[in-house]
Amino acid sequence: MSSKASQTPLTNEQIVAQYKEMKQQQQAIITKLSEIESDASEYSLVISAIENLEPSRKCFRMVGGVLVERTVGEVLPSVKANRDGIKDVVKKLEEQLQQQTKELTNYATKYNIKFQPSS
């Protein structure tokens, strides 16, 4: 096949469909980012609640759907590690969101997409 076949101009419907798909991808990233930020906040609350407790104090933690008894000294490092891992994921999702937003803006500019104000 020639390269001309792959460069056929898109119809208005195809342009709109592609734009809507890109917008949905952006919204999915925003939703996931919100969920993960909420998880990070919960981890931070747990950390602030137990970090000043005696390390030998008994505490309970849910592991794989099972409630297990541990000590604060055993649980605190893993909870902090989990929170830090979540923060890394948040950072990556924020980068993806920036990239997706940039692509969406470029696409809208390229195809001269105009937005009508909602009533």
Protein described:
With 119 residues, the chain is mainly alpha-helical. It has one domain: Helix Hairpins (Orthogonal Bundle), CATH 1.10.287.370. 69% of the residues lie in helices and 10% in strands. It has helices at residues 3-6, 12-50, 72-110, and strands spanning 58-63, 66-71. A two-stranded antiparallel sheet has the order 1-2. A hairpin with a 2-residue loop joins strand 1 and strand 2 (66-71). Helix 2 runs antiparallel to helix 3. The protein is rod-shaped. The N and C termini lie far apart (47 Å).
Overall pLDDT metric: 92
Residue stretches low in confidence (pLDDT < 50, at least 5 long) are: 1-5
Strand order of the largest sheet: 1-2
CATH architecture: Orthogonal Bundle
The topology string of helices and strands comes to HHEEH
CATH class identity: Mainly Alpha
Q: Helices and strands: which structural class?
A: mainly alpha
Profile the largest sheet.
Answer: 2 strands, antiparallel
Strand content: 5-15%
Structurally, how many domains make up the residues? Answer: 1
Shape: rod-shaped
Radius of gyration based on Cα positions: 23 Å
Overall number of strands: 2
Measure the end-to-end span.
47 Å
For this structure, the CATH topology is Helix Hairpins
Number of helices: 3
Give helix % range: 55-70%
